[in-house]
Each structure stands twice: as C-alpha cells, then as structure tokens.
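Methods, example record. To illustrate the input and output format used throughout this study, we show the complete record for Lipoprotein. The sequence lines were provided to the predictor; the line carrying structure tokens was produced by it.
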Amino acid sequence: MKKGIMIFIVIAGLLAACSDTEELKDKLLTIAIDFKEAQYTVEYEQTPGSIPEMADFSEERAKEYLTEDELERQSINRMLLQPIFEAENRKADVAVKDLQMDFIDLPDNSETNKNLEYQMTIQFIQNDSVVEEFSIDGRMRIEKINDEWKIDWDEDSFFKEILP
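The corresponding predicted structure is encoded as:
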C-alpha cells in the first residue's frame, strides 16, 4: 500500500512539473511574440512626425517587454526606430506575418534564463495590398529578474534584409 502511495506521489509530482514547464514556455512565448508584434507593427498614418516623438513612441511600446539595459541598447542602436522609419520611407503600414518561435538549448540556459530563435515575415502594406516583404531570422534571451520575465537581449536580421 505504501509503495503504491509513493508511486502515485512521484507521478503526480512529475505531471505537475511538466505542467509548470509548459505554462512557463507558453508565458515566455507570449512575451516574445507580443514584443516582436509591438516592435514591427506600424500603421503609417499613426506614425509620429519627429525623431524624438518616434523614439518616445517606440520605447513606450517596447518597455514592458525589455529589461532597462536592452531597452537602452535597442534605443541607442535605433533597432526600435527602424520599422517606423521604414513605414515613413515607404509610406506603408508594417505588419508581422508567420511568426515562428522555438526554444533553443544554449549553455546560458537556466531556471532564470531562456533562449529562443525565431523566423517571421515583415510585410509593407499600401491600400490593403502587400507591396514588399522580407524574411527575418533572430534570437533572443528572456531573463527572470525580480520574479518578472523580460527580454534582456534580442537580435534579428532586419537591418541586413532591409538595407541595401
């Protein structure tokens, strides 16, 4: 009888651990997907006029997803501004299509650090028609800081694809 109870407790514990792991993966994927959509979804008619206004606009949309250091790095490198610049240059909306994300096994993975890679298509849309699109690849790391998960590093191939 005791052996049966012990086996039940072990199995219940394993099932709970698997459930927690899947819940965590879902939560991290949601953070990552929401950030990429916030970063690359731009309505041309809604774009702010000046560069300081664009910077404020892009930082405001990204700050809930990024650590302070990553927000600063992306702001300095204009990674957050580039989709807005491209919407302005092309006089087109920018949209994300076919965003696929997967966890990857890297040496710095831990209980508080997870790495992902992703692929997506960025579309430029005028008058409800796609006028141009690019495939983008990237990687990001999400870190747990003070019981909150934030993206602490993100790089993608947007600049390589978009700039001649």
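Annotations derived from this record:
Residues 2-40 form the longest helix (39 residues).
Helices lie at 2-40, 51-62, 68-76, 82-90, 158-162.
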